[in-house]
Amino acid sequence: MTASNGIFALIVVAAAGFFASNVQRLVAYLRIGRLDDSRWDDVPRRVANLLTIGIFQRKIFRDPIAGPMHAAIFWGFGILSAGTVEFIAAGIVPGFSFARFMPQWAYRFYLANQDLWGALVIGAVAFALFRRLTHRVKRLQGAETHANDPLLILSWIGALMVTMFIDQAFHMVAHPEAATPFYRPLSYALATMVAFVPANAAAVISEIGWWAHGLLVLGFLNYLPYSKHLHVVASLPNVYLSNTNGPGQVGVITYMDLEADVEQFGAKDVEHLSWKSLMDGFACTECGRCTAVCPANTTGKLLSPRKIIVNVRERLEIRAPEVLMADGGGQKADARLLLDGFITEQELWACTTCRACVQECPVSIDHVSVIVEMRRNLVLSESRFPEEVMPAFESMEQRGSPWAFDPGDRGKWSDGMSIPTMAELHARGETADILYFVGCMGSFDDRAKKTTVAFAKIMQAAGVNFAILGREEKCNGDPARRMGNEYLYQMLARENVETLEKYKVRTIVTACPHCMHQLGSEYPQFGGNYDVIHHSTFIEHLMAQGRVPLRHDLHEAVSTFTYHDSCYLGRYNQIYEAPRETLKRALPVVNLVEMPRSGDRGLCCGAGGGRMWMEESEGKRINAERADEALATGAGAVAVACPFCMTMLHDSISARDETVKVYDIAEVVADRLA
Amino acid sequence: MYLSLALSLGDFTVKLAVCIKRVPDMEGRFKIAPSGTGIDEAGLKYDMSDFDGYAAEVAIQITEKLGAGEVTVISIGPDVVQETLRKALSMGAHRAVQLKHDAPVSDGLAIATALAAELKDGGYDLVLCGRMAVDTQNRSTGAFVAELLGVPLISAISQLNVEGGVVKARRELEGAYELVECPLPAVVTIDEGIARARYPSLKGIMAAKKKPLEVKPAQLGAITYSLDKMELPAERAAGRIIGEGKDAVPELVRLLKEEAKVL
Prior knowledge:
The structure holds two protein chains of two kinds.
Chain A: H1 3-30, H2 43-55, H3 66-92, H4 104-134, H5 149-174, H6 185-193, H7 199-223, H8 231-241, H9 275-283, H10 289-293, H11 295-298, H12 305-324, H13 338-342, H14 345-349, H15 356-360, H16 367-381, H17 390-399, H18 422-427, E1 434-436, H19 439-444, H20 446-461, E2 466-467, H21 478-482, H22 486-502, E3 507-510, H23 513-522, E4 531-534, H24 535-544, E5 560-563, H25 577-586, E6 591-593, H26 622-632, E7 637-640, H27 643-656, E8 661-664, H28 665-670
Chain B: E1 3-6, E2 15-19, E3 22-24, E4 46-48, H1 50-66, E5 70-77, H2 81-91, E6 95-100, H3 108-119, E7 126-130, H4 141-149, E8 153-163, E9 166-173, E10 176-183, E11 186-190, H5 202-208, E12 213-217, H6 249-258
Parallel strand pairs in B: 1-8, 2-5, 2-7, 5-6, 6-12, 7-11, 8-11
Antiparallel strand pairs in B: 3-4, 8-9, 9-10
Helix pairs in contact in B: 2-5, 3-4
């Protein structure tokens, strides 16, 4: 061991120690968050997410330009990290090489990959720098971003690669006997270019390159914890620990214990958020894919999902040291809390909970859960919410529906249709195979009632034995829960579960994706476990069985349809094909055209997350944006599969072009019943 | 918020009372009970009368702004009114009194007598009532209470200003308003526009469970009148569509002349 080996060893130990202390500090920061132990189950599913979303970069590739660029840097980094380990070991123990532990062919393959990926990374980094410096990529802009950090990081990565090649190439010049032309082809090519350099000078240059590379590696490691590129360390664990793509039900809001003896409901500051939400802040690298797809942001609202996550980290870095101080960290009197200090009420209420941000995030950040937790604080602890929401809350509590209708009129749409209620069947000692949970829109809204009747007619034509709850049905509670009113939500959910259990209901159909999501995915939190089928899936199923008698002698007035995806049907429940398939089966000659934003990239109608009951005065209306997109397809009609999408699109499309009609898929089918 | 305060306090603690009535949800579909003198309560939802809610909100805001004082909410009725009193407590009132009386009473004077008996020795600076109960709409209780307590009344106010032992209030008139003042103690009845009842936070609901709710027998006054009969208006005949376009005009004219007799 030479003196320089000794010096390098000391530097490595110091750098590793400093990095370890930073990791320890950041882990301690996460621990100020709320306990959330739903992150350690279902190992196979988590490993699968880690592989597909993390290692194989599934979501990264959704961007056709930045995708390959990032993947080259990411995979290159992984492969070159092996080289870095060998490099550091050899720096401490002279002559160390992986060749000692590997067959020769494997070692040569490894060497060739070091060269190849080194070059790919240089290319990708150069492209990334070029893109950032010459093109104003919209999603990379934003007041909350750290604009210079990426330039520094990219240059740093480039310098790491360049110093690696300098060290290798000049080493070959200095020691031509040890050169490996075929196994490090690029280094060798460089060496031939600088072969004129005398051997002793080349040795010095190689030595300088070697030290520069070594110091850059260790410096990079220790810069990460202070940069948004903590992402490099935090993102893979974040993907593994995330519940956004399962395990559990996708998009389910966490249960809240309302009986707990706590002073604080929901989140006003970072310590009230789950530790996992805090970790989201570490994993975020400000790529802006979330904000670029946010229906609120893209129509001119203040809300930016990226800013929410960036703010969580910013506030955490200030707040955590206070909490961790020996005295338990009293709140500083002049402190700017996460709520109001960083994130305003206006931003929080703009969210439609459409999950487009979550869907897009390459590192499985859950922006919506932060927003809902903060809304919970606003409603449950502070009673602060847009005043136009109050009648909806009061009506849900009083009448079991967000609109002021008499609960006794809930089943009125079925007058004269001979549809029994569960209570009537029960009184006769009978029961039904299937419960049709109609929902408030389907029961009271004039436009949605047409869908309700259409779906009931289809089921009757197919001979389905079904019943409704009539006046015993209540709002599923989804708007209350998404608006943070967990107290009201749980009241409604428990009442509905009690009613459903009374009639021993097991199978439920509904035309409302919000009812479906609640009854199917969130009611298990209250002991309600049901098989809930959306009407699109159910009708498709009936048609596939040949149970829906249709006329086929029609000349279609409308020949081109476009289908608008509901967020709660699509992103929340992965039902994209059934409604399209239903349309195609009902209209064999029809042409189905897609909007630019469809499927899991579908644009929200603007009604979700309680937005249905709020004013929308900021920017362009979301339903207007969607109407423009639908009309641009040239389709003669728009099909929907959700009563909220129906009312939003019906309003905005009829205001623009009266000839284009909006139909629910059930209406399209019912219209052709024989 | 049309409320301003300049109570010079010193060691003076303001005591406010709010009289609250539990009423059925007005959006419900009403049926007459078999007795013929009341509504069928089956399936109806109940809540605080709207104007009483505004009154409670005003009283709570006064104590919040002062950072001192006490709001007592009082209601007459069977034990179910405790639910309504708890709602007022969850909004921020400090204590509640139920004047227990199980049978329905429609005589405003009898009710005011019971309220006045409770209020008279309570040392209240200001008593707030809703302008009227949204179900029976008698508009009498607040005025009777003021008379029985022998204090001034300002009715149906839309703005309130309590300053140096004086109540200044604004009342809305048809196309105009008037400003009225009187010394404390006093009774005011609250019109809309002054403040919207807040939505109780979960924090408030939890706190309300621990606040005192006293139950006392209601000392009703003599019943001087009774409700004899209640009836729903006759149902309107269904509309008729006689046709579309100009072909339908002669028939329409004929019906307007012969059946409706308006032409």
